[in-house]
């Protein structure tokens, strides 16, 4: 007998919005015309880009701070132009990066219990883009490595620990970059661009490994993300403005593995991917639904599961990492849907009769520990995420403070900008520390010398004045 219905444990996943008192109310969500998700979430905080007069700002709320948010609630407000994108560091739940129309990227340290005063001073300002910065994305496995992409069509990869731009890919895209996605171990990135190309790039070799022209033929924005198996999933539009999704193998991008037409709505489809369950959730900007699909090795490869529908359209969407979910309730995803004036959590659940831990739903997932230091990654090493079990729930540990040790600019070469001097820039951490310590010692010795000189001069002056006094007295 041929099976008529494909077997899958995710066939009955259902979504449910939380009650009103568990929403975050009275938030003026940003109206800036930019196709980012406007919201970033981790197991401690939800961050939302908001309307701000005279600059750019975003809210950072502890997850438990539901209900009406007071207008005077402190914000993160150091940018001089609207904030376009925000991203929580995967290795430190108190560190968040933001990109803005003011051409800068800023990295912020949020206090453990949330903000009590507005935050205007970032830990570090990363300057290198000549136009607005619309994309920020942390490296999935290396500590303190951050990617940014701007409307100058350049991608810069920073070592946040030193505040340096170590890789600058400024000649690979001829038009605006719509999005950038790291692969599972952070060795490659894929990009979707306004020139209708999807590119797979090795950032450290500064090479395009694969590209597909006209991945989607329509003129509206595309998105491209890496899946755990190395394939690339894209969303875009057909020539007839129908929304499409496609699956590609970077080793052969002539034809897609799968291509599906969806509907004729004009909102950009933002894909959110769960590598543990191989489910992709598609949230259209301006839509009032979330569609979800399972990716498998069997044809047709992308299997439609279901749609969560609501009445209100979404302005943006946040997606909780797996370690922030409630495993006792068989929750496999949690979204934070932005309305015009509020943020509403939506919980995706697999119905199960048992209250026991469902290990088939929760394989070991990426934990908060970094597998590599920044210097190791820039020197060419790769590592998969360090996995943790969710069997007994996830208990957030103590985060160490982000410390930025800027290099002495006089001692270092100009920042790596082109291919030739790229890989020679990163040095061993020990060497860096040595150079910095020597520079500090020199400074201290100079200061001591100048103080001694001042004391000698004052001594001479005092003895002269004493002689003059003696003469007058005589």
How would you describe this protein?
The longest helix is centred in the C-terminal third of the chain and has 45 residues, at 429-473. 11% of the residues lie in helices and 35% in strands. Strands 1, 2, 6, 28, 29 and 30 form a six-stranded mixed β-sheet that branches. Mean pLDDT is 89; it is low at 408-430. The chain is mainly β and 474 residues long.
Tally of alpha and pi helices: 2
Class per helix and strand makeup: mainly beta
Helix content: 10-25%
Low-confidence parts, pLDDT < 50 over ≥5 residues?
408-430
CA-based shape: elongated
Q: Kindly report how far apart the N and C termini lie.
A: 127 Å
Q: Please state roughly what percent of the residues sit in beta strands, choosing from under 5%, 5-15%, 15-25%, 25-35%, 35-45% or over 45%.
A: 35-45%
Largest beta-sheet details: 6 strands, mixed
Structure summary, number of beta strands? 32
Arithmetic mean pLDDT: 89
Radius of gyration: 26 Å
Protein name: Coronin
GO biological process, one term: actin filament organization
Keywords: Coiled coil, Repeat, WD repeat
GO molecular function: actin filament binding
